[in-house]
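Ticket #4471: structure export looks truncated?
Reporter: QA, pipeline team
Priority: medium

Steps to reproduce: submit the single chain below to the structure queue and open the exported record.
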Amino acid sequence: MAKIKMKKKSTSTDMTAMCDVAFLLLTFFILTATAKVPEALPVDTPSSTVQTKLPDSDLAIITVGKGKDGKSKVFFDIKGREIRKRTLEGMGAKYSVNFSEDDKTKFALMDDFGMPIAGLKQIIDMKSADRSKANQPGIPLDSLDNQLKDWLLVARRAAIDIDNKELQIAIKGDAKEEYPQIKRIMDILQDQKINTFNLVTGMRGKDF
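Actual output as written to the record:
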């Protein structure tokens, strides 16, 4: 009896529709994603399982870590554009440094900074990419020139004037940072009767 030969069907698959979907998804994520701004003072925060999210406004972040030159530095950031503007005005008046309206607008869009008030205009005038690469010396906080104390005080007053809220404080310290530097910042907070503040940490899995 003669064998019946089965006709072989083509195993190729038309991938045109799949490619279209892939490119649509790729385009969507590119257009909706937000680029991460390089940190002026990158720090490796300690790990924690706490998931409390920091607010997007009425917040001051004090960053402590080692700069590119290996020296311990302190940077400062304020969340809230109007509060940033008002704080810059107050610091300019306190230290007799004139800031233009353009300076205030640029400063309101900046992230953290680590410059003494006298040299802050140099950082404000830079582009964002150049600002993150600049070797900023850090904000002075010694007994003779404690500008960090003044930044905190003026920013707290600005938050109350604008939003009628107490400014929340967060410390973002490197996991390898020495304790005396962190304690110095905590002493500044306690001098202003700030006994409650947040510690910024990185996420890690829970231990089972």
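Status: closed, not a bug. The export was complete when the record was re-opened. Leaving a note from the reviewer for reference: The longest helix spans residues 16-32.
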